[in-house]
Amino acid sequence: MSKKNKSDKNGFVYSTDPNFGFQHEEESAQETLPPQQQKLKVRLDTKKRAGKAVTLVEGFVGTDDDLQDLGKKLKNFCGTGGS
Q1: What residues pair up with 37 in beta bridges, in sequence order?
Q2: What pTM was computed for the model?
Q3: CA 58 from chain center: how many Å?
Q4: Residues 6+ apart with CB under 8 A from 74
């Protein structure tokens, strides 16, 4: 299910109170840990992919931009493409 289809109303469906407002909690921006403190796990997986192997990297702590940069660096280093 895509994120745009999920509701961010914390389980509320309907309210009869005209003054009711949702209180959104601020998501704290997760800072990227230094490389020495990252504990990444790299594994080969074929589950639910019709037997095709993919490499999964798990355990990254940081922002989405830093994750994209890490993916680009790994693909460049390994000489592969993909998504």
Answers
A1: none
A2: 0.56
A3: 10
A4: 57
User: Residue 39: how many CB atoms within 10 A of its CB?
Assistant: 9
Q: What is the DSSP string of 57-77?
A: EE---S-HHHHHHHHHHHHHH
Strand positions, DSSP E, the chain: 41-45, 54-58
Residue closest to 27 by CA, chosen among 66, 63, 3: 63
Q: Where are the domains of the chain?
A: 31-83
pLDDT in tens, 27-75: 556 788 888 999 999 999 998 889 898 889 899 999 889 999 999 998 8
State the SS3 of 32-53: CCCCCCCCCEEEEECCCCCCCC
